[in-house]
Amino acid sequence: MSDSSHLLDLTSQAAAVQRLLRGRSEPDKLEWVAARGRLERVATAFLNARPTYRFVSTVGMECVFFINGDEFVFIGGHTTFTVNE
């Protein structure tokens, strides 16, 4: 996946995105994702929670996530999960 690639569904493309963005700062990762859809920070009810984001791709696929190091941690269905390579 090159820097010019399209991001149709962050959840299903997470392993490739993580490989591509490995070692970059969190602001750089967020900038890369935001350039490929709509990214917004969402409020959380937990004190000291990590910044959490909602991403909507150009084809309307949505997900909610936070970043932990080089991993995207997805939130949904009463669970959190990561995508292993």
UniProtKB/TrEMBL annotation:
It comes from the Bacteria. This is Uncharacterized protein. The lineage of its organism: Bacteria, Pseudomonadati, Planctomycetota, Planctomycetia, Gemmatales.
